[in-house]
Design goal:
Length: 78
């Protein structure tokens, strides 16, 4: 009977360790999920920044075109 009791205690310890391990794995999974969400956010911000740069480039091209037009008009005026 003592051996049976010891075995039961051993099994309980093993179960507790298994539960702790499962909790640990869950925590790791949650941290991984949070990291993935963080990466997605960074990607979205990068895309927004690229769109912003494109807009600035387009505005710069329009500005250059406007300056050329003004120069052409100035040449005609002269």
């Amino acid at each position: 009977q003592e051996e049976a009791v010891q075995y039961i205690d051993f099994v309980k310890i093993e179960q507790n360790e298994a539960v702790q391990y499962i909790e640990f794995v869950k925590t790791v999974q949650e941290e991984a999920f949070q990291y993935i969400e963080s990466v997605k956010t960074v990607q979205e911000e990068a895309v927004q920044y690229i769109e912003f740069v494109k807009t600035v480039q387009e505005e710069a091209v329009q500005c250059i075109g406007s300056v050329k037009t003004v120069q052409e008009e100035a040449v005609q005026y002269v």
